[in-house]
Amino acid sequence: MAMGDETDWQTDRANLKRLRKEQPAWTRQQLATALSRSLAWVKKWLKRIKTSPEDEDDPALLLPKPRSPKIPPPPAHPLIVERLLDIRDHPPDHLGRTPGPRAIAYFLAKDSVLVEQGLKPPSSSSTSTIWKILVNNGRIARTRPPTPHQLLQRPGPLENFQLDFKDIPYLSIEPDGKKAHLLETLNLIDVGTDVLVAAEVSGDFNAETALQTVASVVTRVGLPKTVTFDRDPRWVGSHTGRDFPSAFVKFWYCLEVKVNLCPPHRPDLNAIVERYHRSYGQECLKVHRPQSLLEAREVTSTFKEHYNWQRPHQSPNCRNRPPRVAFPELPALPSVPLLIDPDGWLSQCNGQRFVRKVDYRGTIRVDKYRYYPGREWAGKFVQVEVAGGTRQLVIWHKAQPLKQLAIKGLANQMLSWVDFLVLRLREAQSERRLASMRATTRRKLSAL
């Protein structure tokens, strides 16, 4: 989906303001990661929010400030540049070191040649001009300092599960020359202990079957406090990952499990399961090269047992011991509840905003339903805010509310675990069909 330029920015500013209130302990980097924005962007808008008027609910706070034309300062006089470089290359004898920008500014202010010519050198209170001259003339090499390695803060045992798919590419080719569909394994690994909780092999993982597989795992082992996964369309329901909560995300929200959704191009935030994939690929798949679903399940099950109980693990948690040897006793996880509120995801998404473009009919699509802001807004981008308390969607345009519409598709009653799972599986099936229709449309358009 194409994003509106300013509407998209306003949405992220609103979400930043919401996260600042909901997560006061978060660092700026955590806010930047959650919003998929740069650290500089977060610093800029946090500063504006903090220095804003007393009324922080003023919609004008989300609008950008007018950008007046900026006239760059005139370049330094050639004689100033010449004298500056001479001081850098031939420092005064009594200095005893290579002068930096501040020292150069001190000597420039006393330079007799500049005084005779009536030229005013850069001030010692602001050395950016001197710094730029030194960089541009090769006196200072600008190198980016290495990012310091930070040790991962591990949670307690069985508190945080990381999920991801891993291809199993070693399959025989059909007699007609066609390649069979690649098998995949869905791995769940515990961050606090490096224990491989589950490794499920299948050849047809989609939004529906992946959710069903994960549901069977948590039914068997229990619920963690947090789950971490990337923006695979089977998890988030769209390729952008910035859309309305998918059936999979709602599944966890309703079970009161925190969701850590990794930003794009950040596999390091899902590092434990990614590192397991390397071991699994090198020590299992490349060795046994399974050629069928049955073989893949057999070697994966054997490797899971080997990984947890026999293979020494070099992480700081295990200290060169197998994970289950390092953690022989694991805490019991809470079971799935008997009754679940299928609309519980509303409280988790309260205040979140999403961008939509109003079509020629005056409607927008949110999840699998259509809403009607009005034909007068056709062709414009609007923001959609989830008001969980009133169970409504608030439509915004340029920081002005347009409409409040009731959220469609809510159950409005408690459901048993089986009925809750059926509901979420139907939603995942709808997402899969919609994704298939969009892919077909893209292929037809590209063929034209």
Structure report:
The chain is an alpha+beta fold and 448 residues long. It is built from 15 helices and 13 strands. It has helices at 5-22, 28-35, 39-50, 78-89, 101-109, 112-117, 128-136, 207-221, 233-236, 247-254, 271-288, 293-309, 323-326, 345-349, 417-447, and strands at residues 160-168, 183-190, 196-202, 226-229, 258-261, 339-340, 353-357, 364-366, 369-371, 381-387, 392-397, 400-406, 415-416. The strands form four sheets. A five-stranded mixed beta sheet has the order 3-2-1-4-5, sandwiched between helices. A hairpin with a 5-residue loop joins β2 (183-190) and β3. It is globular. The chain starts with a helix and ends with a helix.
Which properties best describe this structure?
single chain; 448 residues; alpha+beta; 13 strands
What would the average pLDDT be, to the nearest integer? 86
Bin the helical content.
25-40%
SSE order: HHHHHHHEEEHEHHEHHHEHEEEEEEEH
Poorly predicted runs: none
How much of the residues is beta strand, in percent? Answer: 5-15%
Ends distance: 20 Å
Broad structural category: alpha+beta
The main pleated sheet reads as:
5 strands, mixed
Query: What is the count of β-strands?
Result: 13
Name the strands of the widest sheet in spatial order: 3-2-1-4-5
| Rg, Cα atoms, Å | 29 Å
Q: Helix count, per DSSP?
A: 15
| Rough outline | globular
